[in-house]
Amino acid sequence: MAGSIEMDTSAPPVNEALAEALKSRQPRFFRASCGTAMGRTGTEDTGRFAENLMILQECALLVGEKLGMSAVAHAVYYEGDETGGFSFDPNSNPQNPDVAGAIVNRRMPMRDFLQTVRDFINS
Prior knowledge:
Elements: E1 6-7, H1 15-24, E2 28-33, E3 36-39, H2 43-66, E4 74-79, E5 82-88, E6 99-104, H3 110-122
Parallel strand pairs: 1-3
Antiparallel strand pairs: 2-3, 2-6, 4-5, 5-6
């Protein structure tokens, strides 16, 4: 899934959703597949996720190669008080898997963050 990721701009930006998520410190969820990232919190927030996803995927591939694995199934980052990351959707095509992820404006333990993303995948 390396390469560029474009944002799906067909939906209007929903800045109210972003404002509410930031106020309540709840995760903002995103999906990415076939080079397109989609989210409900506006194009700028979705763009941030897409940028971070590309960087995390490159790092995951490098780590996977070093460990003799084909790929890493998930990755999480911490930047200041923000937690973000992704997990491959196990229900998608393994040859071209979909990715789900989130950004939240607080530090979350990795286990809790990944469980939140998995719950989103299964919802």
